[in-house]
Amino acid sequence: YSFFLFLFIVIIPTLEDHIAEYDDFWKARELEAIENLDKAYHSNPEEAESKKGPCEVSNHVDSCRRCDRDWEKNRKKLADCAPGFAHGTTGGKDGEFYVVTDPIHNGTGPKPGALRHAVTQTGPLWITFKGSMTIKLQQKLIVTSDKTIDARGANVEICNGVGITIQFVKNLSIHGLQIHHIIPTNGGKIKNDEIHHGLRGDSDGDGVSLFGASNVWLDHLSLHHCTDGLIDVVQGSIAFTISNCYFTDHNDVMLFGSSDPYNADKKMQVTIALNHFGNGLVERMPNTSNPTIISQGNRYSAPGTFGAKDVTCSGLLKLAQWKNWN
């Protein structure tokens, strides 16, 4: 705890990621996040395991739950399947089901049935969708702890607006969303949880942004055409897994860690498994600063240029800095 507390206090001006009014609500949530980050750290990364399923499925992550033909009646079985560093992430398993019925977005006063109303509720929730829908977010979607967003069985697109922000929270899983054409927008007052509204700064066009978050599983997402990064993970986020996702048509795909001097990112741990890095990608697959990464079974469709096929790039570093890279 003291390790993270020191680091967060020293660089507190950089922790306000687009929060225009850093009030007591966000200060309290930050301190809670510090404790969660330390608890989620794996001192032995090799011990981060996923539960293997009972039947033969070529995708070992999906084998945990795809053998069940009645999966729609047993959706919460998914909560036992988080692989890699996110193992043990249960999301909204201990909560009730919440069905999203309304695609209309309202940043400050979302009505029951809207996605923002669901993700800002207190306590665990398992969030599903009544049917296929397109959601255009005018402001960042701030997701609170202990939530599962489960879009399996529906075609749910978040597009032509703002993306998803996971900040100073824990125990989240997101499955089956299509996130694309995310654009920068002006800031404003939005609902952050069930009782708090606060001012946010301008958004920069990330598809999914993790900031000081722990125990997060992103699975079977499709991401493309975001103005900034498809997935950005910064400020000491830890214990997260990105699996079975499909990335296309973008320049800066993933960022893990905001800068080398930020020491809290040295404890960042991420599993990247069974993703497809498809056509139209340029760089950052991923770009990292300090974290521990377990990468397994990913597939890349690289351009024909030789430089684009480099697995590691030493850039402007000296030989002594990169000669022992694996």
UniProtKB/TrEMBL annotation:
Keywords: Calcium, Glycoprotein, Lyase, Metal-binding, Signal. It comes from the Eukaryota. Residues 132-306 form the Pectate lyase domain. Binds 1 Ca(2+) ion. Required for its activity. It is an enzyme of class 4 (lyase). The keyword Lyase applies. Pfam families: Pec_lyase_N, Pectate_lyase_4. One of its GO terms (biological process) is pectin catabolic process. Its EC number is 4.2.2.2. SUPFAM superfamilies: Pectin lyase-like. Gene3D superfamilies: Single-stranded right-handed beta-helix, Pectin lyase-like. Its cofactor is Ca(2+). Pathway: Glycan metabolism; pectin degradation; 2-dehydro-3-deoxy-D-gluconate from pectin: step 2/5. GO terms for molecular function: metal ion binding; pectate lyase activity. Residues 1-16 form the signal peptide. It catalyses: Eliminative cleavage of (1->4)-alpha-D-galacturonan to give oligosaccharides with 4-deoxy-alpha-D-galact-4-enuronosyl groups at their non-reducing ends. InterPro entries: AmbAllergen, Pec_lyase, Pec_lyase_N, Pectin_lyas_fold, Pectin_lyase_fold/virulence, PEL. Belongs to the polysaccharide lyase 1 family. PANTHER family: PECTATE LYASE, PECTATE LYASE 18-RELATED. This is Pectate lyase. It comes from Gossypium klotzschianum.
